[in-house]
Amino acid sequence: MRVRAVFVAWMLAVAGAATVGAAIGLATRIQDLRAAQAAGSSVEALGAALRVVEAVALERGASNAALRRPEPISQERIGALELDRERTDTALALTLAHLHRLAPVSSEVAIADLQQLGHRMRELRTVVDRQITLPAAQRDAVFADGFIPAVVDLLDEFARLENVLEGLVARSDPTVGQFASVARVASDLRDFAGRAGNIHIDLIATRGPISSSALEQLAEMRGRVDQSWSRIRALIEQAGADTELATEIHMIEFEYFGGTRKLYGRVVDAAKGVNTKLTVDELRTEQFPLLQRVLTLRDAALNIAAERADARRHAAMEALTTVACMALMTLAVGALGVVMFGRRVVFPILALTRTIVRIAEGERAVGVPHLDREDEIGQMGNAIETLRYNALVAEEAAKQHAARLEEARRAAEGASRAKSAFLATMSHELRTPLNAVIGFAEMIEREMVGPVGAPAYVEYAHDIHESASHLLQLINDILDLSTLEAGHLALVEEKVDLRQTLQASARMLAPRAEAGQIAMSVDIEFDSTPVTCDERRMRQVALNLLANAVKYTQPGGRVAARLSRDRDGSILLSFEDNGVGIAEADLALVMAPFGRAENAFNRTTEGTGLGLPLTKRLVEAHGGELFLTSAPGQGTIATVRLPAWRARSDVAAA
């Protein structure tokens, strides 16, 4: 019995070793074949993507020329523009099809980016169509000037997809990747050359002195063209001398660089008034074949890359076929041993594995197989049965615990809503009589109806007015805080000059600071950009923080308010004083409703503990944050940070 077991084990070991060897060989050849296929597919996808850039560049030039024409575009030219757009859409659709085929190979392929490019191009076309049918005087000059930069931005975003495809080719086959890089850089060269061409078209359209900005743009594009050309030459030398590419290099140097040098010299003369005969249409007609000449290098490099990828694919297929035949012979020898081993060990383990997976997926009533076996398989089955039972018990306990937590959460939310509703109701009920008390006290204090007699009554009326006003402010704060906690505060957002808001708040508190012998300063490090916010609420924030700074600063102290921007564009409102300060342990306390730090100065200073909590929630309602930095005896810095998007010009007020 033992000899047979040893023999079977030895046979299984031999068969397993043979199988592993065959599998490794097959896996290696399959990997080679997949790499070759991936290289070929990536080259095709890269070629399609580069043709998208070409099509967009052609459409960009045609649209820009139409926008620069002094008269509305004719139907004939509209038809030509539509052909350019159809070419772009066709290139996009073809590239999208290639990307769908590549998606299983690489998760880096961003199909959504390509779809977004098409969507944004269609949006630009809609505006272009409206503009080119109008006379030049009625067109949107801002859109016309920004059209080329807008398309350039789209192509710059699209370059990320080109980088991914170029990287896929290089990782699949570095040799093929060298020629793919040549094609990619040649496409970039064509795009930069097209941008330079559009700048020359603008010079012809404007017919005036060449501005410094135009000269800078031309210098930048020429620099990019030269840089791309140098990189192309370096890549071709690195890949090895190739007759076809070497010929293309010489032809492009002669035709493109030589031809554009002469043509653009005429453009500069025309812009200066030396030659007034050159028109936008004539420039585009002469310029187009020169620009397209660059693409012959791109196509030649893509053809070489595709041929080399195809050759590698054929070689990998032949190698895979050979290894597969050898693997079949090896597997046939070990088949009997594998079957025997599978029936006794592998299949039971697979059955137990499926059982474990079903239990892990929540199927607790599943039956566990092989419980009656007395070997290791049976022990494993019994262990899984124990695991299943324990999981069933734990799941029931978790359900009960979750139910208790949900019940507690609902109770807490109900209590919070009841509290907020009670505070809001009471605040409304108290404000009406308080307003009457304040009004009548003010009438008595000012003796509006007639003298009250004893002067002490006037002082009493003043005290009543002050106390009722303080109580009304407290009730208003409670009402605002309750509204914020209930989530019912609606911001009335508009474009606001925060500089004026801060200065107005400082002026309101200046008398109080002067009475307390406190120096107050306002530092504005912010431009005139309007900020989208609720002006009344932001004024309330500034008043609360300034009032706190003045209140807790002793005579002879100073208070500084500052409006500025952070490095990331966030809007910063800071209020700094050198008053009594707050201990670190009390910072969280003062942010809670009715919370006040305990110190000798607080005990002689009135306050309800609602200012900071209310301010914090108003800032958070604007999507901002409130920070406190303080230390006893050193003062306090309260900083309000509003998100940068609130100062963007494209954000509409609510």
How would you concisely characterize the structure shown here?
With 654 residues, the protein is of the alpha+beta class. The chain contains 15 helices and 7 strands.
What do these coordinates show?
- It is a single chain.
- The strands form two sheets. This protein has a five-stranded mixed β-sheet. Strands 1-3 form a two-stranded antiparallel ribbon.
- The protein is of the alpha+beta class and 654 residues long.
- It has 15 helices and seven strands.
- It starts with a helix and ends in a 12-residue tail after the last strand.
The backbone outline, from C-alpha atoms, is flat
Q: Given the structure, what is the number of helices? A: 15
Number of strands: 7
Taking the sheet with the most strands, its summary is: 5 strands, mixed
Spans of at least 5 consecutive residues with low confidence:
none
What is the subunit arrangement here? single chain
Terminal residue distance:
88 Å
Helix and strand pattern = HHHHHHHHHHEHEEHEEHHHEE
Tell me the structural class: alpha+beta
| Strand order, sheet with most strands | 2-4-5-7-6
Mean of residue pLDDT values: 78
If you compute it from the alpha carbons, what radius of gyration comes out, rounded to the nearest whole angstrom? 39 Å
> How large is the share of residues in beta strands?
5-15%
- Helix content percent band: over 70%
